Amino acid sequence: MTTATVEGVEVDTRHWIGGERVASELTFTDISPIDEQPIAEISAGSSAEVDAAVQAAKQAFIGWAAMPRDERADLLRKVADGIDARAEELARVETRDNGSLLRSHRRSVMPRVGMNFRFFADFAEKLDHPGGEIRGHRERVSYDPAGVTAIITPWNAPLMLATWRIGPALAAGNTVVAKPPEWAPLTASLLADITHEAGLPAGVFNVVQGTGAQAGAPLTAHPGIRRLAFTGSVPTAGVIAKAAAPNIVPLSFELGGKSPLVIFADSDFDLAVSLAVEQFDNSGQVCLGAFRILVEDAIADQFTEAVLAKAKTIRQGDPRDEATDMSCLITRQHFERVDGFVRRALAAGARAILGGSPNDELGHLYYRPTILVDAEPGSEILTEEVFGPVLTVQTFSSENQAVEMANNTRFGLAATLVTGDPDRAERVSAKINAGTVWVNCFFVRDLGAPFGGNGESGIGREGGIYSFDFYCDIKTTVFSPKGWTTND
To answer: How many folded domains does the chain comprise?
Structure first.
């Protein structure tokens, strides 16, 4: 079978290479986390498919890079239009594939997917080539396409996080080889169809499916790659960096997080409670999630009681039901990993005031929303990324202690701060080590702003001009006022 019908949508299960569907002899089974049932047999790529995709992208790069920027932008806006037209289909397929809420896909995720293409198309079309003057010489800076870009994306928001990088890479004039996550590959295949229907030339966008070992490894080590973007875990990033190093490939990594939610006694109490419970979004499978709750001791008991009461109202169930607030974890492997973190924390002396175990009523991969207290400072549950619906609560007594606790991590992706004092907001946000700090809000993202992590949370920044700084070769040209044989 070369196609699968998923939630009423026909999805091609083959690779997309050089403008054609390509099957592999080997396949792997795509299993839905909703009920652990197989939904498709996917072509499993290897070095042969990877090399074919890179060669197709290299060939297509010549014409794509030379295409006027406004023409490239027009094609990418057509891709965005195609995404918008098929947003409902994309939402249903991705919900079945990765278990995220259908209502979230409909209301925010898929609209953002189209926006990723439209924003960067507009941005590239208007990108200036700034100039200057040095000792009477005219100086010009230009943003030149870099070449073939490899993009390896995660399963927790596979299409949105892929297009966050595919969009600017293509807008910059690069061609792309994307490897979608083997745990949720289907919407990448639909995106290939959409790009083809929009008129992207063959080879400009390619999709090679497969596991990290079979497809990811040869892609990251391929000498034809000139940019490599990856979202995922720190250990995998280390492997990728080592593979790419001999080819001197610039890297963009968005990695793990152990972000704090710092709540002061002067905060808007209801806002603080809502922000805490919001961290259960997508069953905690959110890299930016603020799962370490740090609350000032003067309000700690009242706050914890209110969070507990609100969290108990979370409706867990099938993500296709609009009434569901929290769904399942992605795979049995990940489910057992999350449960292992909680079990070890409880054995080490932490207490679960909510959850702390699988949801036996729902079975399968459903894990109860969990809140842990009394964890030993420096313990695993407070320092390692769980990537599940597990919050910890700690208390602090001073502003300096809050900052120290917030920064007591090797990660630095994001932080959330809740306070009613604007001066405190300025002081504390300036001292917190994070790529993004939200004050009295959460997950407000501007596509033009720089995004990335400090420490082990990543390398580099993307968004707006920062994306083009990465996906382009930046050239400085200096023109002398002398030596000209003609004057126009």
So the answer is: 2
pTM: 0.97
Run of H or E residues at 195 = helix 186-198
Do 315 and 177 lie in a common domain? no
Kindly state whether residues 216 and 317 are assigned to the same domain: no
Q: DSSP string of 90-142?
A: HHHHHHHHH---HHHIIIIIHHHHHHHHHHHHHHHHT----EEEETTEEEEEE
Helix (H) or strand (E) holding 254: strand 251-254
DSSP element (H, E) containing 20:
strand 20-22
Catalytic one of 94, 287, 385, 472? 287
- CB contact burial 66-78 (16+ within 10 A = b; e otherwise): ebebeebbebbbb
Which DSSP category does 383 fall into? H
Q: Which of 89, 254, 385, 456 is catalytic?
A: 254
Which one-letter amino acid corresponds to residue 443?
Answer: F
Q: Which of 450, 444, 445 is nearest to 464 (CA)?
A: 450
Q: What is the pLDDT along the chain (488 residues), one digit of tens a residue?
A: 799 999 999 999 999 999 999 999 999 999 999 999 999 999 999 999 999 999 999 999 999 999 999 999 999 999 999 999 999 999 999 999 999 999 999 999 999 999 999 999 999 999 988 889 999 999 999 999 999 999 999 999 999 999 999 999 999 999 999 999 999 999 999 999 999 999 999 999 999 999 999 999 999 999 999 999 999 999 999 999 999 999 999 999 999 999 999 999 999 999 999 999 999 999 999 999 999 999 999 999 999 999 999 999 999 999 999 999 999 999 999 999 999 999 999 999 999 999 999 999 999 999 999 999 999 999 999 999 999 999 999 999 999 999 999 999 999 999 999 999 999 999 999 999 999 999 999 999 999 999 999 999 999 999 999 999 999 999 999 999 999 998 65
For Cα atoms 343, 345, 350, give the angle at the middle one, nearest 5 degrees: 120
Helices (H) and strands (E) in the chain, counts: 16, 24
Return the number of other C-beta atoms located less than 10 Å from residue 448's C-beta: 14
- Domain membership of residue 485 (yes or no) is no
Q: Are residues 291 and 313 in the same domain?
A: yes
Q: How far apart are CA 301 and CA 12, in angstroms?
A: 53
199 with 323, same domain?
A: no
Give the CATH number, domain containing residue 416: 3.40.309.10
Domain range enclosing 198: 3-255+457-476
Active site residue 328: no
State whether 166 and 313 are in the same domain. no
Report the SS3 class of residue 49.
Answer: helix
Same domain, 235 and 127: yes
Pairing type for strands 251-254 and 225-231 reads parallel
> Is residue 254 annotated as part of the catalytic site, yes or no?
yes
